[in-house]
Amino acid sequence: MNDIAHKYSDKQRRFNEEMNPHLDALYNFALQLTSDPNDAKDLVQDTIVKAYRFFDSYEMGTNAKSWLFRILNNSYINDYRRKSNLPGFVDYDEVSSFFEIIRDQRTDTTDLEDMIYRDLLNDDISYALANLKEKYRSVVVLCDIEDFTYEEISNMLDLPIGTVRSRLHRGRLLLKEQLLDYARKKGYELIA
């Protein structure tokens, strides 16, 4: 094997070892951002291509998951900005309740996100999480589901830690408000 081929096969091996363990979590986060399995797959694919292209700048042994999530989030934001400048698009917030109704009918996935949100969590909880504004939902998902630290979320989303904390606090409060009736129906005592 010549030196060039060996160099590329070594890079591919190192990339796979560092990045592949995080693909499911990456897809789940992309699905939370996009609410569409096909868009989530495209976003993950775009993230992997960018990560591979810039893998030489990645420091081996550091937090690969955080690095990938930051690339994914930046790609999502850039794509959102690009699409928002195009004419003829409908604001998602205007049609979100309708979309949530038809989304449940058209998605039939077997991924980890599906297991978490359909088997382990009640539809009321999934719906409440999906109805959070994206800036709150991202922080709640990254912290409470993906178990990232405030510092990691701050780096991924390029936000000050104080903003991460306040968005997490606000997101949790919004979830609590949405889920009060659900908690009562399930017999939970509400503490003032």
Automatic annotation (TrEMBL):
One GO-annotated biological process of the protein: DNA-templated transcription initiation
Domain called RNA polymerase sigma-70 region: residue spans: 21-84
Keywords, comma-separated and alphabetical: Sigma factor, Transcription, Transcription regulation
Domain spans labelled RNA polymerase sigma factor 70 region 4 type: 125-174
GO terms assigned for molecular function: DNA binding; sigma factor activity
Family membership: Belongs to the sigma-70 factor family. ECF subfamily.
Name of protein: Sigma-70 family RNA polymerase sigma factor
Organism: Halalkalibaculum roseum
Lineage, highest ranks first: Bacteria, Pseudomonadati, Balneolota, Balneolia, Balneolales
